[in-house]
Design a protein that fits this description.
This protein is mainly α and 298 residues long. It contains eleven helices and five strands, in the order αααββαααβααααββα. It is globular.
């Protein structure tokens, strides 16, 4: 028995509740969540500034702080809708979306974030050594300071929204019928990849970038099942996006930022291989001595 999946049964799980909750979550995300982007688009269209524009790759000519804030705020209705659906449509305590333990295991979350952040630093260091000139110092102290203040608040909202929906709500729903962790992780990886199909990174190498998104979703799901909770995945995802936004970001990205370093070449092959190795190391850190699902101890 996986307690993280079984805890779903403490709530109400009739089929019509999932139909109602899923439609509610997606409607609120797509409709209310689009308001910040639509407001920014309206501003760009009416500012009489030829330097500002909106294209298939996003906004151009506007403040990166404004662009970032509008993008991240789209996830606030998403996470709110997911939490409200679980609490009021499925009548479950909100902590059951994260863990089957009596309380959220914050130390586990922070440990996951720390481990993945360290691995991200290592991946970037090795890439910089292998490909001299690929990492360019673009340090803008004042801009990065204000961006940091926004990022440490908004990025965890964004990553938590995705984790709570994909590895929380959807995974626990599927777990009512499916118990095989490999099948659950495969389906979850596919579902996680789908909304990322329109990211500008896909234009560089669609196949490898698709594999990268799928692998991340697959691994985060597998870790969640193995650990009997969402804490490690929450920490890992937040650390991944914070590192990219603040320390080493690409020129081609869905999340432009004034990072400390800008990576001039998006190398999907290196990224996929390096992230796969990082996942293996991450798994070894937390489950190397005990490959069985973690008991609920806290």
């Amino acid at each position: 028995m996986n307690n993280y999946l079984e805890v779903t049964r403490t709530g109400k799980n009739e089929w019509w509740r999932y139909l109602l909750s899923l439609s509610t979550i997606l409607t609120i995300w797509f409709v209310i969540g689009s308001i910040p982007i639509m407001l920014l688009l309206g501003y760009v269209m009416m500012d009489d500034n030829p330097a500002t524009n909106f294209t298939a790759t996003g906004f151009t000519g506007i403040s990166v702080l404004l662009d970032f804030s509008a993008t991240m705020l789209t996830f606030l209705p998403f996470i709110t809708a997911t939490l409200l659906a679980v609490r009021f449509i499925h009548a479950r305590p909100l902590n059951t979306l994260i863990t089957a333990a009596p309380h959220i295991r914050w130390k586990r979350l922070l440990a996951g974030a720390g481990a993945w952040f360290a691995l991200a630093v290592l991946i970037s260091f090795i890439e910089a050594m292998l490909y001299p000139g690929r990492y360019v110092l673009t340090f803008q102290p004042l801009l990065l300071f204000f961006y940091f203040l926004l990022a440490v608040i908004l990025i965890p909202i964004q990553t938590s929204a995705e984790e709570l929906f994909f590895r929380g709500y959807l995974l626990q729903w599927m777990g009512l019928k499916l118990k095989n962790k490999w099948i659950l992780s495969f389906i979850n990886g596919v579902l996680f990849f789908l909304p990322h199909m329109l990211n500008p990174e896909m234009a560089v190498n669609g196949i490898l970038m698709a594999l990268a998104y799928f692998a991340f979703g697959f691994f985060a799901c597998y870790v969640t099942l193995q650990d009997n909770g969402l804490e490690l995945a929450l920490g890992m995802h937040a650390a991944n996006n914070l590192f990219s936004a603040l320390f080493a970001n690409y020129t081609v990205t869905a999340l432009p930022s004034p990072a400390l370093f800008t990576i001039q070449t998006l190398d999907p092959a290196y990224g996929f291989v390096a992230s796969t190795i990082a996942m293996i190391i991450f798994y070894g850190i937390f489950f190397g001595r005990n490959p069985q699902p973690s008991p609920i101890l806290e």
